[in-house]
Structures are given as structure tokens and as C-alpha cells.
Amino acid sequence: MKRFLALLLLSSFCIHHSSFAAESPPNIILMMGDDHGWEETGYNGHPHVKTPVLDDMAKTCFRFENFYAAHPSCSPTRASFMTGRHPNRMGTFNPGFSLRPEEISIAQILGKAGYHCGH
């Protein structure tokens, strides 16, 4: 009887554990607009710019409202966004500088976790 109860308990744990493993990971969308100002969306109150998809995402998804750009230029800011490092630490100082091959990006980390990344 004890052996039966132990097997029943073990099998219920395995079934319960496998149900967690079968869940798919959440979708992640990281979006960055080039020369996109804070108020240039409908959800932030712009009177003329129409952004219905962004407005819907702002209502139904997680939204970051406190942030800063790592650099006044696009390439260093994008590189910092992708790596989590300051532009001076990775050699991306001005527009046109590429990300060095040895830098690890969030896309690489998410790819190893089973995500499909694109841009």
C-alpha cells in the first residue's frame, strides 16, 4: 500500500510538472522608433498623429513609461538597447558604427531560450 501511494504521488508530480513544461513562453515585443518623440502617439495625447495599433497595445500590454536614451544618436542607442551596455563600453560611438561580433544581444539570449527573433 505504501509503495502504491508513493507511486501515485510521484506520478501526480510528474503529470503536474509536465503541464507546466507544456505551456508556451509569453510573446515579447521590443519596439523602438527612430526619432520618435514621447508625445508622438495617440495614447500619449498627440492631437493629429493616429497610432491605433500602438494605442491598443498600450491599453492591453505592459508599457514602459520611465526610460532614457543611452545616446542622442540612433546607432549607439539601438546597440545599448540590444545589449544592455553603455555605448562607450562596446565601441558604438556614432551613427554607422556596427555592433561588434563579440557583443551578446538580447536576441541571442532569447534565441537560446527558444524564441524566434527578427527585425
Task: Walk me through the topology.
Layout: H1 2-22, H2 52-60, H3 74-83, H4 87-90, H5 106-112
Q: Give the helices and strands as they follow along the chain.
A: HHHHH
Give the structural class: mainly alpha
Bin the helical content: 40-55%
CA gyration radius, whole angstroms: 22 Å
Oligomeric state of shown chains: single chain
For the largest beta-sheet, the strand count, sense and barrel status come to: none
Number of domains: 1
- How many E strands? 0
- Basic shape: flat
Short note summarizing the structure:
The protein is mainly α. It has 5 helices and no strands. Residues 4-8 have low confidence and may be disordered.
Features:
119 residues, mainly alpha
Q: How would you describe this protein?
A:
With 119 residues, the protein is an all-alpha fold. It has one domain (26-112). Helices cover 43% and strands 0% of the residues. The protein is built from 5 helices and no strands. The chain is flat. Residues 4-8 have low confidence and may be disordered.
